[in-house]
């Protein structure tokens, strides 16, 4: 990349130090300058520069919680390289508890942006110039959209040099091999030579303990993989990896065929089999909707996303399933989880806390 990690306007970040810097990214309606807080931490020696960002969508704050946890960790000492922590990329949306910019644009469709473009495009241009162009790799933290929750899944274009290495080092149980939409942060960063992955995990407007733990540990595993952390005596303990990584390039959204009130039979992260009942649609008086009542899984897979809203009309997305790749079976995943899946079980339990799950009858 072309921009120095040391100089940020009038602020200099020397090797072996950490500094907070503030990027001017726009103005409010009243003309007050809007700034993004950034924490830059450098090791004593040169090495990779990795950015970790959150709240590109202003209501997705699980990643904000994880980054704050990492910044506040007194034992996170870098031996080489640098990390750029950006807890909130989109302050204009964050202040409104909104996914979108005040101009109603989705910032995650506006990269790399333009200096003289729309409000969202100008913010995207600043982020790209000041963060991506200083970095060798990136991790962008997201959650599900409103009224949904996501089981932790890393997404990345595995055909791009460095992305598979980054995704596998992060260590989620599920990796989706996806390019990403035009204008999305990770896709456009990859296009300029900065391999970038995104994590999708949890719900909007929340800082969920198991999700922030998983996200912060994933970042630490990446830093460890690139030999950026200090001596083992000082290094934060990185947990063992998930019991079995599942890499999928094929997902499907299962939708309701009838209107009604849903009784869910699965949790986020559950392994499902073809023909398994995912939910049952009932009337408001509790009677099962005839013929189209049961919503069935079309494939073997892992539930990576779910609606948290039980009221459905025809076409409502109920759950997002990552299909299992060749050689990976539902039985194999369940056996491995039974032996080594403690954190995954904690995550599935916490994510289902706001969903009533009933036994399939």
TrEMBL record:
InterPro entries: AstE_AspA_cat, N-alpha-Ac-DABA-like, N-alpha-Ac-DABA_deacetylase
Keyword Metal-binding among record annotations: yes
UniProt superkingdom: Bacteria
Keyword terms, alphabetized: Hydrolase, Metal-binding, Zinc
Succinylglutamate desuccinylase/Aspartoacylase catalytic domain sequence ranges: 47-225
Pfam families for the chain: AstE_AspA_cat
Cofactor requirement: Zn(2+)
A GO term for molecular function: hydrolase activity, acting on carbon-nitrogen (but not peptide) bonds, in linear amides
PANTHER family linked to this entry: BLL3975 PROTEIN
Listed name of the protein: Succinate dehydrogenase
Origin species: Longibacter salinarum
């Amino acid at each position: 990349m072309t921009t120095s990690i040391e100089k940020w306007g009038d602020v200099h970040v020397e090797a072996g130090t950490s500094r907070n810097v503030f990027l001017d990214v726009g103005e409010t309606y009243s003309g007050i300058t809007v700034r993004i807080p950034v924490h830059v931490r450098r090791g004593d020696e040169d090495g990779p520069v990795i950015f970790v960002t959150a709240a590109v969508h202003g209501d997705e704050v699980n990643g904000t919680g994880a980054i704050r946890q990492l910044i506040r960790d007194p034992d996170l000492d870098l031996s080489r390289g640098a990390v750029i922590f950006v807890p909130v990329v989109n302050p204009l949306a964050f202040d409104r508890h909104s996914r979108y910019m005040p101009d109603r644009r989705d910032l995650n469709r506006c990269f790399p942006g333009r200096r003289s473009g729309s409000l969202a495009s100008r913010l995207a241009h600043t982020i790209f110039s000041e963060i991506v162009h200083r970095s060798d790799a990136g991790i962008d933290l997201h959650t599900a959209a409103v009224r949904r929750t996501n089981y932790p899944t890393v997404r990345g274009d595995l055909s791009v040099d460095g992305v598979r290495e980054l995704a596998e080092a992060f260590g989620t149980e599920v990796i989706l091999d996806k390019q990403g939409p035009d204008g999305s942060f990770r896709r456009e960063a990859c296009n300029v030579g900065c391999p970038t992955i995104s994590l999708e995990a949890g719900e909007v407007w929340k800082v969920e303990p198991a999700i922030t733990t998983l996200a912060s540990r994933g970042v630490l595993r990446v830093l460890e993989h690139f030999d950026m952390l200090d001596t083992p005596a000082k290094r934060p303990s990185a947990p063992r990896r998930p019991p079995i990584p599942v890499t999928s390039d094929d997902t499907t959204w299962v939708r309701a065929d009838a209107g009604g009130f849903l009784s869910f039979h699965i949790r986020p992260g559950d392994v499902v089999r073809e023909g398994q009942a995912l939910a049952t649609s009932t009337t408001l008086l509790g009677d099962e909707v005839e013929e189209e009542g049961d919503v069935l899984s079309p494939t073997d897979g892992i539930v990576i996303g779910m609606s948290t809203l039980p009221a459905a009309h025809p076409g409502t997305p109920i759950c997002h399933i990552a299909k299992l790749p060749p050689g990976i079976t539902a039985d194999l995943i369940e056996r491995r989880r039974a032996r080594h899946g403690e954190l995954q079980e904690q995550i599935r339990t916490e994510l289902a806390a706001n969903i009533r799950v009933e036994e399939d009858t």
